[in-house]
């Protein structure tokens, strides 16, 4: 898919042309007004004429504007200054900063009455295409669809359709791309518009591997270009189409011709365009085994970005050229250089992918990134002795962990940004949360559809206003990452599941790093069969033959946990693919592994760096619970007793169904104390997982909650289970809490047994009170349970479904106070002591009265 750059570049050239200079308005008569005019005129002028002066540090230049535009003229100058900055940074290949300033311009137009001649040409198209450049295609699609709905001009619609077709193309929606292209071709706006449409159509057919149709439309595009007067941007469009022809025909002579033409006509400009062409040339030369020539082409690609040393450039062209160099060095058997460029490419790819906002695009890129990891592991595996070298295995571990949890890391950082967001952004979050709540509660299908359409529009405006690109800071460091893996009393296991279901395992212990790759897919198949047999709907399979369980579990231990005999007490496990949801502590090595080890699961060891280690000394526990449910859901018999057990020992806020409303629930997560949830969860493959308390709360809603809790205990069924996500784990309730920067989450892999859940929950909080360590507390709770359980109850089906995910923060508990009981006791005693003499006096009074009465009667 990343080879589809040429039609995109034609599109970018068509829609990102140098914006027209606005016509000046008369200046104001007042001196201060003139002074303000001069400030904004200077800003606009430098932004337009001297992009070199701010390309390396645009924020420094922009931040010199410390006054607010007041008049229409000043607002216009300010707006066009932002637009010109976006365009200038685009020309210098700085995608991140370009998107940032185009978004500033878009938000300014939305929030301020200001004159702009053509918002589609000046802002919408270049911004949408920058989103495509950073592979955030879903956001591009939404923006263009909105623009089309608001545009009535036929010529503008034709250009927008072409942009939208490219966005669909890069999003893998090829039928949608062809539909909008043929619609636009039926009503052409101009010969050049036709040329753009035809070349985009050629790319769609190329992606479908229909080479004949692809070549036909590419030739049509070139014919239309050659009939037109070409200069400036239109000449670049033609050069891009010529390069596309070279790619289609696998003819690097055509690509070389395109390179020479752009270098001749634009000697000091269009470096990023030149880099695209030289990257293509390198790929073609590599395919022909012309390695030195290919290496020269890749070096030229890197040169156009002008990095200093081992720099990172947030651009996929840069990443692809690094990967090209890595593969060339492999072919030339220069292994140190190959490993160096693989690592550099993966690091650069990690940073570049964090520009992506939409989850769909993140997940698609995860799949592409796994292909790079596959190549790197194959290299290490196939060279004798390479997998035994500490530095190499350490390097591979770093690269594997960089390939995981990219979307999750993005969500964590966005959550942190939202906490200090503007009022406008917070209002957007509230609106999104409210719409999700209405969707969750809606029964009528048409109502859900109407709300979903409204949500799309609100989400787009929110994403454009949240200023994500102004606060992005993703720079994990290898040295810091490795330092986290030196925790005392801990070992680390990292997994990578290959396409053929074999598994690469890297183990970090006190002795160093070790590499293992299973030679057959049997371990994964056996693991999945083992999981289905013993951790399904019934505990009976274990009870029939515990010895058979132990034998199978011992085999899996040997395959998945090498060197377990010498492993430390705490085992941190970085999972991948089908390994999610498997209870490692229920494996066997002369006994259940939980007898010797505490297990903590992670999506990536990078979470040690990205999750905030929230330490709390005296934490209260908020218990959100519901025990009674309408049919067909069963009542949760253990919940009331569980709530009573917790609140009798620790400082607890009990929030039952009658108190549960949106405001109260959100307030609990925003407090720095433990949140314990005892309620039903509902999993639906077609919808987001939900927690069913007095109201339904989906993971969609939870993503827009503010959370400061150090630990969430999900005392419900299947809270760690969900739809698999590429390199991200599962779309579970547990995962959404991690995405909100909760450092410790306890959840369940399958249906919970009522009595066991009650026992383990009670024991967990008792152990947490003693250790202040949730990883250790859960392990100790399981060990205490097994020590007291009869042989039937030692079945892992009962206890192994409860698991810990997180980084291991310290949490102290606040005990419940006995003061109320003392007060009641003292008060009762006081009353008794007080009433005793009073009662005696009253009795004496009645006795005297009775005597008098008796005397009178006599």
TrEMBL record:
InterPro entries: CHAT_dom, TPR-like_helical_dom_sf, TPR_rpt. This is CHAT domain-containing protein. It comes from Sphingobacterium faecale. SUPFAM superfamilies: TPR-like. Keywords: Membrane, Signal, Transmembrane, Transmembrane helix. It comes from the Bacteria. Coiled coil: none annotated. Residues 1-23 form the signal peptide. Residues 557-804 form the CHAT domain. The keyword Signal applies.
